[in-house]
Amino acid sequence: MKVLLAKSAGFCFGVKRAVDMAFDTDATKTTYTLGHIIHNEAVINKLHNKGIHSVEELDNIPMDQVIIRAHGVPEDVYKEANDKAIHVVDATCPYVTKIHKLVNRHERDGYKIILIGDAKHPEIIGINGWTKEGCIILKNIDELDLSKLSKEERYFVVSQTTYKKAVVDEIVNTLEQAGYDIKFTNTICSATSERQDEAREIAGQVDAMVVIGSRLSSNTQKLYEICQSICPNTHCIDDASMLEKEWFDGVEEVGVTAGASTPSDVINEVLTKLEQI
Ligand code: F3S
């Protein structure tokens, strides 16, 4: 069985930077990450061994420093850390920081902000928290209610960095065609679109596809959906232990890709096991 590995599989620039920053942090001080640094248990456990655990909020836990993960956080969190004299190790992906600045500035310039993404995703919660009034958050075109928008307003539109381009394009095109005054900045990270394009291309060439990453990771789930729609024999796994031999009966070529939070050693273990199969 031939194995075709996507070049773009695994850590993106922002996640690699955040993980490196967490491991480089001086853990002789009481340090927590705000939420898990990435959706990967092996990495989280390694950080635990270094003495760095995670908390969901800054409330009530004495600490010297807090690490902010690549997804970023609302502006209030920085103020709260400052009030509590907690040092911030800011591992927010620079591409996400750019969105924080964009929405903040455009709101001050009089725009209403439309944010395309999943309202429960930490990145969206973070971006929303850089506006005073809050954003109009749309998960998909079904949530776009034109009767709630006004042609007297100006709207600034951005999206979650890991969102599907087709969903964003559909909303932006609908708003434009309906004659609303919108300014759109494409904030989909190229790491995501490149990984998705490559996954699409490979899924079209193989008999089976393996997507490595956590079920909790939204970009992994999107990769899975894309591959599955092209190659029905697609499987999403956390690591090599989840591979099942039967999936590859009669398979001549298998494609492999991985979400942005999948470490390279996990990918290598999967490749080794596939070669054995
Ligand atoms: Fe940043 Fe793009 Fe990764 S926004 S965290 S480099 S997917």
UniProtKB/TrEMBL annotation:
Molecular function GO terms recorded: 4 iron, 4 sulfur cluster binding; 4-hydroxy-3-methylbut-2-enyl diphosphate reductase activity; metal ion binding
Enzyme class, first EC level, given as a word: oxidoreductase
Keyword Ribosomal protein carried by entry: no
Catalytic residue list: E123 (proton donor)
Family of this protein: Belongs to the IspH family.
PANTHER family reported for this sequence: 4-HYDROXY-3-METHYLBUT-2-ENYL DIPHOSPHATE REDUCTASE
HAMAP family reported in the protein's UniProt record: IspH (MF_00191)
Protein name according to UniProt: 4-hydroxy-3-methylbut-2-enyl diphosphate reductase
